[in-house]
Amino acid sequence: MIVIDTSFLYALLDGRDHRHRDAVGWYEAMSEELVTTPLVLAETDHLAATRAGRSAQAAFRRDVATGAYAVEWWRTAAVESVEVADRYADLGVSLTDGSLVALAARVETHAIATFDERHFRAMRPIGRAPAFTVVPADST
Predict the structure, then answer these.
(1) In this predicted structure, what is the pLDDT of residue 140?
(2) Most CB atoms within 10 A, among 1, 47, 64, 132?
(3) pLDDT in tens, 82-118
(4) What Rg value do the Cα atoms of the chain yield, rounded?
(5) For the chain, what is the domain count?
(6) Is the pTM of this model over 0.70?
(7) CATH at 117
(8) Is residue 122 within 8 Å of 92, Cβ to Cβ?
(9) From CA 61, how far away is CA 67, in angstroms rounded?
(10) 8 A C-beta contact, residue 44 and residue 57
């Protein structure tokens, strides 16, 4: 299972994004289940509407509605997300990024699909892994 971040989802969605080809190439080659949080869906929906337009937003919403991405939120998710974001406040880590670290611990993975290497190389997984595997960067 791979946790998916806004930066990756948006690059996958917007053909004008300079990382689009990398996102599509990796996405088409991988076969693992993708999981994210509602915070990522909200950010991606907003970016699609404000940067890529209504057709991109509609395509993204169709993907969400058809279950292209598993979405997880649990009773303690908000508290855990805040704890992670606060732990890395000096890096400017968002609540959304905090939610992905908490989700990775919950689903027992250290793989994150993101182009936000600055944050996900600095943050540490909760659990045994010493670092996140950042894809697509670490898959080449």
Answers:
(1) 65
(2) 132
(3) 999 999 999 999 999 999 999 999 999 999 999 999 9
(4) 14
(5) 1
(6) yes
(7) 3.40.50.1010
(8) no
(9) 10
(10) no
